[in-house]
Design goal:
Elements: H1 2-14, H2 16-41, H3 45-65, H4 69-90, H5 95-116, H6 124-129, H7 137-156, H8 158-166, H9 168-173, H10 178-219, H11 223-248, H12 252-279
């Protein structure tokens, strides 16, 4: 294992694609920490799943029209995010139903246009499971710009975000423009999911975003510390997952999710054992 680690570190120094993957992991860990915490704290993790799977429809349409896949996925994700934000305000009790409908619609649109697009199946696996080693400089720049905008948004409007996350109705009564902040949060969630999909794909992106935030929620007492811990956990999962992918020639997205899931199980086992010992 030590020899493999040395080989992995040497490969990072030698190959540009691994350096890009490392930079992408650092940038995505910020997105995963903040966006994941927003999903978990607002109890809208299922919305993230709907946005991710509906983005597949945008990917299919973009391939069929010969447009940018990232642009098609982003437009599709934003449309779905704003739709769900509207549904959450008007028909809150039915948002899970609307989310399931949009989820299925997005996937079906993606499948139809994928079938109509020539050579679309060649990149199908990368869309479903991600392609960390193919991240280029343009993608890194987009991630960096998004990280800056996301951090500025959270730092400037942290109190409003915190208030809306825990008591939206009270904020509305106080005169806070909850609709603007809700739509802004959903927009950041949508774009964050799209950028994160480059690492884990649409199937595993929800796990990559929610697992670190859920683990951080066990230890953190405030939203800001949850975001910080979640970013650190996400960075660890992705680094270790990338190493496992290099060592055993497996897909990085799956390795990252596997590492995170094992950590969650281990922590809950430790908590259960501690409670059992104290009772005994």
């Amino acid at each position: 294992m030590l020899a493999t680690l040395k080989s992995f570190l040497y490969a990072i120094i030698q190959y540009n694609f691994l350096q890009n993957a490392l930079f992408a992991i650092i940038l995505i860990s910020v997105i995963a920490g903040i966006i994941g915490s927003l999903l978990v704290s607002n109890r809208i993790v299922f919305v993230g799943g709907g946005v991710a799977h509906c983005a597949y429809g945008g990917i299919g349409v973009a391939l069929f029209c010969g447009c940018s896949v990232l642009l098609g996925a982003s437009i599709s994700a934003l449309i779905v995010a704003f739709s769900l934000a509207f549904v959450q305000k008007k028909w809150h009790t039915h948002i899970d139903t609307f989310n399931a409908i949009l989820w299925a619609l997005g996937m079906s649109v993606g499948v139809v246009f994928m079938n109509l697009s020539p050579n679309a199946n060649a990149d199908l696996e990368s869309y479903l499971f991600g392609s960390l080693i193919s991240v280029d400089f343009y993608s890194l720049m987009l991630m960096a710009i998004f990280d800056i905008l996301l951090l500025l948004f959270v730092c400037i409007y942290y109190r409003e975000i915190l208030s809306i996350s825990y008591d939206c109705e009270f904020c509305r009564l106080r005169g806070i423009y909850t609709d603007i902040f809700t739509h802004s949060i959903f927009a950041f969630i949508a774009i964050g999911i799209i950028l994160s999909m480059q690492i884990s794909g649409l199937i595993l992106v929800l796990a990559m975003l929610s697992i670190p935030a859920y683990m951080a929620n066990i230890f953190a007492k405030t939203l800001k510390t949850q975001m910080l811990f979640a970013s650190i956990f996400a960075l660890f999962f992705m680094l270790f997952g990338l190493f496992l992918a290099y060592a055993y020639n497996i897909m990085p997205g799956a390795a990252i999710t596997f590492v995170g899931t094992l950590c969650i199980i281990s922590i809950h086992l430790c908590i259960w054992l501690l409670r059992y010992v104290r009772k005994g």
